[in-house]
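To assess whether the prediction recovers the assembly geometry, we first specified each molecular entity separately, as shown.
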Amino acid sequence: MSSASLAASEKGAAVRIDLLFLGLALASTSILIALVLLDHQPASAALILGGFGLGIAFLKAEFSYTASWRRFLTRGEAGGLLGGLIVIAICALAVVPVAALSPKFGGAIAPLGPSLIIGAFVFGVGMQLANGCGSGTLYTVGGGSGRMLVTLLFFVIGSVLGSLSLPAFLALGGVDPVLAPDYLGPWGGLAVTLASIVVAAALIIAVARRRGATFIPSRSYLVGGIVIGLLCVVVFAAGGHPWSVTFAYTVWGAKAAAALGFDLSQFAFWQWPGPKHALAESVLSDTSSLTDFGVLFGAVAAAAATKPFAAAPWPPMKSLLAAGIGGLLMGWGARLGFGCNIGAFVGGVASGSLHGWIWFLAALPGCLVGIRLRPLFGLSRE
Amino acid sequence: MRSVYVVVVLLGVAAILVDHLSSPSSDRAVSPEDFAGACAPCGAPCPSKK
Amino acid sequence: MQLAPPAGGLPRNENEIATMKAFFRFRPACAVRRLRAAILFSAALAASVAGAHAEPLVAAEWLSSHRADPNLVILDIRSAIDGGGAQAYAAAHTPGSIHSDYDKAGWRVTRNNVPFMVPTAAELEKLIGDLGIDEDSHVVVVPAGVSVLDFGSAARAYWTLKYVGVKEISILDGGLAAWRQAGLPLESGTKTPSPKIFTATIDKNILAEAGEVEAIEGKGGATLVDARPASFFYGKEKAPASQAYGHIPGALNVDSAQFYDPKTNRLKPKAELAAIANAVPMGPAVSYCNTGHWAATDWLVLHELLGRKDTRLYAGSMVEWTSNANRPIESSRTKWDDLKKALGLGS
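The predicted structure of the complete assembly is given in tokenized form:
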């Protein structure tokens, strides 16, 4: 266990660099960047680096969608929720017009129907049991939480199961994606998207007021929201589409299954061109995986740079049970709902796609259910 | 916990390396995948296409 | 000259009797003309039977005793491929042979930036005519006889001659090395051929073009035979002029080296060749490699020695195939191979 003491920093607490994990994070990131550069893919390197920045930002700001939504639902406290909207607004400024104007870029779209609603709802339940969502799982795993390792493992398993279920749920029906820029052009679409964010913010503030709670985002959520929003634009620019977190988990799980001898290629999901390609090609050819690896290692680096890494003990078994169940529900729900809070909510709304808001409105009741179930596993209500 | 993480990180990077190095070479530009008509980032088909 | 009764038995009516009498009337001048025609016809028949089936491979002893034959052209094709060329020829060659550098003389040309393509009929008429070869020549191709690679030169030269309509072609089995081993005399100096007018009759049946191969790759109808070593087939290495690693999807790998015995520097006995070629299902086949060089050996074995006349050569081969990024390729090459190459540890 190696750590070096440096001069005291903020609040007088000693900053101790955990060299082992900082080294591991930097070395791992360098190896991945070297591999993609040797493959003549500088955009892939940009995705890793963008993710690395996101990992640092999420960890430093403790930017939790899960906790902020829980605080809003239980107490009406809206600061974190609004901070999350800042991310979307900044992202939308780039995604809506560029995706509409350039054939090389695309937004996050999804059909509207039972699959979206059920998936988002189930995800909402899971995220409160797991104490983290798509981004939350990543940056807290990166931060050294053993509990989140369990969540991530089951998130991956749930994602594979979701991939097998999705075609059946799509068959329940639905309508084609509804995109504001399709009807109103790039700038009209952007205006409507920003307006919808403003309206949502106004409604959220009204609720906060009625419940006598605060709604001004803290400095963490304000600065964090802006930085994360800008990094989302970087990821969009490098990858050609908004940041997607959970597709990577589906790919990792399917590759692991393949390595264990399970042939998934016969399932409908894995015959669609995108997934088929991702399964057959290197994991470093998948934009979602590249960003996620970056987030993980960025969070590890940020965590290890200031204090001993993974120093917390394992939580009790009941808590780990919630982590596992939560992860499973999130994985399955994210596939049906076409993404998590990042891929579907942030990505969808920032693309001007109606599914983003529907996802949000379906996930919130799911969160309510999840919050209600938390005490069963020894987790706090708030 | 630390040792678990060390193992996880090392195994994870090793898994990425093995997957990457055993994957098909991309020595020449692969013809663009037909993602056209996909209705979601995961490539799901559109309801109207059924 | 019909001396037998007409078919159908003896004549029954006067017309037929009159025809018979007219036919059999004895006229001395006419008879002499007919006799001479008969003699010439028989002689020509005998001559054509004797040379009609020029053996694809001839022994050094055969060449030694036949080298003064009219119409025989001994073509020494040594080039940089076997470490020789015009200088090696000038130093020592089989008596009476002329030289054409397989690599430089224009047996293969660059067209549309794709190298090693089949020249046009006009280019070949000039190349071959200038060597003193015409439609009646019996060409004996003499390679160096040092490796399967230089045998491939002979096979490709053979194929090219056949493609433009030369009817009688042979390869000196074992090449110049065999001639030397047999202790036969050598000449030095340069014999300049007297050019002839050569008119090409293109035999499209032995050439496959890119469009046809594309159709075969997509719909079948012939076996694609990849004559390259396994490392090329699987994409572990490629020809410098190729744009991609791997083989044409669906192809069978039949390395031309399998047909060759490096100890004797000759093709293996026919029975062994047939056993190896069993891997290629009966029916149409198209042989290819990188530039149609190794593939010419496979073609020669299948088409000329094993009598599989529905075998064609895809002369453009992988260098042409890969020049268009839209044509499919199958490969086992991995990023590990790419990494090795980037680090200078592989190809």
